[in-house]
Predict the 3D structure of the following.
Amino acid sequence: MFKTDEQTRATPKKLRKMTKNRLQNIALYYLERFDSSSANLRQVLKRRVFDYARQTPDFNASEAENWIDEIITRFEELGYLNDSRYASFKIDDYLLSGKPERYIRQKMQQKGVSDKVVDEILNNREFDEEAMAARFAAKKRIGPYRSDETSRRDNRQKDLATLVRAGFSYDTAKKIIGAENIDDFA
């Protein structure tokens, strides 16, 4: 018939025992699917240890922290983790999609990549903020990329705000939104 709330409530899934070997396998499986910085992988592993420690009160989480440090160090030695390589790939992707420098720096900081590595990579890349803003506007179909002039005029402030929130300077956003010819930025 019908189940009561108590019958339908899901019980938390019992997690498998956390060992150094299991933690290493979790890290390897994660790296098979995603490229990662050292700090990001550390956060992923800490989250898994925290979840297990919450279910198992007698688990020694500080010992697991040492395992994480050993795994990260070992993976860096083996070349599985390389923050410079990771940042280079991610920054290239962000630049190709038209993301501004401020956005890129913020994302790399969230992933735990040092400012020194980001500076080094960005200094070796040539990018034009106006061209990136134009690419972003084309992707979002705003400003000169809107279908008709009425829509463009009615949404001018909204489009300006979209570009500024994305991380482009106000002057660059104004230049893109005010452009008559989209071919100027191609």
Notes: The CA atoms of residues 87 and 135 lie 22 Å apart. The first helix runs from residue 5 to 8. The two ends are 65 Å apart (CA to CA).
